[in-house]
Amino acid sequence: DGGITQSPKYLFRKEGQNVTLSCEQNLNHDAMYWYRQDPGQGLRLIYYSQIVNDFQKGDIAEGYSVSREKKESFPLTVTSAQKNPTAFYLCASKESQGAHEQYFGPGTRLTVT
Amino acid sequence: AQSVTQLGSHVSVSEGALVLLRCNYSSSVPPYLFWYVQYPNQGLQLLLKYTTGATLVKGINGFEAEFKKSETSFHLTKPSAHMSDAAEYFCAVSRPAGTALIFGKGTTLSVSS
Questions:
Q1: pLDDT tens for residues A63-107?
Q2: Residue-wise DSSP of B40-54
């Protein structure tokens, strides 16, 4: 089955710790995205990558970092510099620059205390 | 700059009633428009999309949306609500060059029996 997997589903961390969220896709999509979702705020773009070894900041990149060493993988690190890291994180992918619709993973709910 | 406004953060209907979820967009270029649905603690699922061509777009689960350029709207409708339609719905517009999507803040649909 082709799709996007995110792990883990739920993640708990102490304040001050970095944490890495996994996103893997086997759809052979070129572009991948990370969004953050907070209640009543919709989805906000953190980082995106249109090709391996290249990525761009989105609207709320501060306190986050990413890498894109493989086409199928786009991990997101939430650093201790992120002021309010508790949120639902969604990874998405898109086939190519010619396509516009994105396909989403199941999400990871991060709680930092 | 692109933007999306969803009118009404919460819509309640009775089972069997018409569903109407409103979305207005702002775009400096011909828009690509999308509706996604999200069930609790899950990722987003694409309901339908407008790219070019026919302005009335049919999607999954009996939903449809009409692109009205003169009104800059892309409202989502379903003739008869079902209990399983209860979820959060997001309207989105594609950014220039198709790099990412801009989402509205979402509308929660409640369906009562």
A1: 999 999 999 999 999 999 999 999 999 999 998 767 789 999 999
A2: TTS-EEEEEEE-SS-
Contact B113, B13 (CB under 8 A): no
Q: Cis before residue A8, ω within 30 degrees of 0?
A: yes
Alpha-carbon gap: B103 to the closest alpha carbon of chain A (Å): 6
- Going by pLDDT thresholds of 50, 70 and 90, the confidence category of residue B27 is confident
* Mean pLDDT for all residues in chain B: 93
Residue partners of B37: CB distance under 8 A and separation at least 6 = B44, B45, B47, B61, B87, B88, B89, B90
User: Please, are residues A19 and A77 in contact by the beta-carbon 8 Å criterion?
Assistant: yes
d(CA B50, CA B56): 8
Separation CA A49–CA A89 (nearest Å): 16
Q: Which DSSP state fits B50? A: E
Residue B38, classed as helix, strand or coil, is strand
Which of B107, B93, B31, B28 shows the shortest CA–CA distance to B63?
A: B107
Contact of B44 with chain A, judged by CB distance below 8 Å, is answered with: yes
CA distance A41 to chain B (A): 5
**Contact between chains at A90 and B97 (C-beta distance less than 8 A):** no
- Label residue B7 by pLDDT band (50, 70, 90): very high
Q: What is the pLDDT of residues A14-30, one digit of tens each?
A: 999 999 999 999 999 99
Size of interface A-B (CB pairs under 8 A): 58
